[in-house]
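does this look right to u?? 3-methyl-2-oxobutanoic acid version
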Amino acid sequence: MRRKTIFDVYQMKAAGEKIAWLTSYDYPTAQFAQAAGMDMILVGDSLGMCVYGYSSTVPVTMDQCIAHSEAVRRGAPGCFVVGDMPLGSYQSSDEQAVDNAIRFLKEADVDAIKLEGGVRIASRIRAITDAGINVIGHIGLTPQSSGQLGGHKAQGRTAETAELVIEDALAVQEAGAKMILVEAVPAEVQKCIWEKLEIPVMSIGAGPHCDGQLLIVSDLIGQFQAFTPKFVKKYCNIAETITAAMEDYVKEVKAGFFPDEDTYCYKMIEGEQEKFLKLIEKK
Ligand code: KIV
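got this back:
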C-alpha cells in the first residue's frame, strides 16, 4: 500500500478535499482507521488520559509516545502518521526538540511530529524543520499548558485573545510548520486563520472553516468516560457495547453456560479417548 505523504495532504487542500484525521494509540485501532479511509492519524499524548488513565497529559513520556507510535505505524502503513511531542520533550532547548523529533522518525517511522504553542515555540519549529522533519503546530487550547490557561477552556473568545491566537498562527507558519492544528477556538477566529494562512489548517473544536478535522478516537467511539468536550460527536457507544458483552460473559460463566462442550471445546482425535482411558486406568 502506498503511504500518504505531505504532498498528498497539500494536494487534498488544493483540490478542496477535506482531510480526515483521528487519534489512535494501538495497532488494531490504527487498522480500523486505515480501513475506514482515514487520511491521517495522530498518536496524541492524549494517550495519557485515554489509555493510561492519567488525569492529564502531563505525565506522558517520550518512551510511551514512541511505543504507541510504533504500534500505530504497523497498523496503518498507508496513513500519514503524526507523533505528538509530550511535555518535557521540547521545552528546554531547540537541541532537545530536534533530538526528540529525530527519535520519532528513527524509532517509530512517523511522517511528522506535532508540538504545542505559537509565538513562544517558534524557534523549536524552525529548528526541527531545518533538521528536515515535517512539523505540525498546535495552537488555541494547548492541553500541556492547561495549568496556565486555567483548565481545558476554549481560547480566543474575546477580541484581544483572538488577536493573540492569530499571532500564534502566523508565527507557526512563519517558522516553517507544514500544517497547523487549531483547538477549541470560535469558528469566526478559525475562519480568519484559514483565510490568512497558506499551509493546511486543521480543526479540533474550531469549527468547519478549515482544511480538515481531528477527533480523539476514544471520544468518537464513546470509550472515554471522564468528560466530553462540547465539540465531540460520538459516532457510537462502544463503552455500552463492551460492558454489555462482559456482563453476558460473567452471567454465562457463573451459570455454567459458557463454554458449552459441543461448540467451544476441542475433541480428542478419533480412537484416542479409549486408549487414554486405558492408560490412566493403569495408574
Ligand atoms: O494529544 C492529542 O490527542 C492532541 C489533541 C487534543 C489535539 O494533542
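The chain has 13 helices and eight strands. idk if thats expected tbh
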